[in-house]
Design goal:
- By secondary structure, the chain is an alpha+beta fold.
- It has two helices and five strands; from the N terminus they run αβββββα.
- A five-stranded antiparallel β-sheet has the order 1-2-3-4-5, covered by helices on one side.
- About 20% of the residues are buried.
């Protein structure tokens, strides 16, 4: 009976820690995807003089390059933003965004009503991705 109680206590401590670790590992995948897109955008701009919103112009990049995040690419006034929006097991986690100047931002993901994709990310603020890894 004591052994069962000890196993229960250990499981109560270990399982939440493991789930937190897994969530952070999935975030790292999103960060890596956004940094890859940033590098590809800079290479594209060096060759063509402009950024692109066409995935086929960015070798090795796609909207599904991070398993639990969908990546959205947008152009505005000649500059781009790439946003990683969580889905599946990461739903409700942070959205992450990188822009043409390398600024890294975070926002809380609120999947509600008719909003989809980037619309579910509210109030992007500059943040340190390293603290969220």
């Amino acid at each position: 009976m004591i052994v069962v109680a000890i196993i229960g206590i250990l499981a109560a401590i270990a399982i939440p820690s493991y789930l937190k670790y897994v969530k952070r590992a999935r975030r790292a995948e999103a960060f890596n995807a956004l940094m890859t897109i940033h590098a590809a955008q800079e290479m594209y701009k060096a060759e063509h003089g402009v950024y692109t919103d066409n995935w086929s112009n960015l070798p090795g990049c796609s909207s599904n390059m991070a398993k639990e995040y969908t990546i959205y690419l947008a152009l505005s006034d000649g500059n781009y933003t790439a946003t990683a929006v969580p889905h599946g097991r990461q739903t409700g986690d942070y959205c992450f965004r990188i822009s043409h100047n390398g600024s890294k931002e975070c926002a809380i993901h609120f999947p509600t009503g008719n909003f989809t994709g980037v619309q579910c990310c509210r109030e992007f603020l500059e943040c340190s991705w390293e603290t969220l890894r």
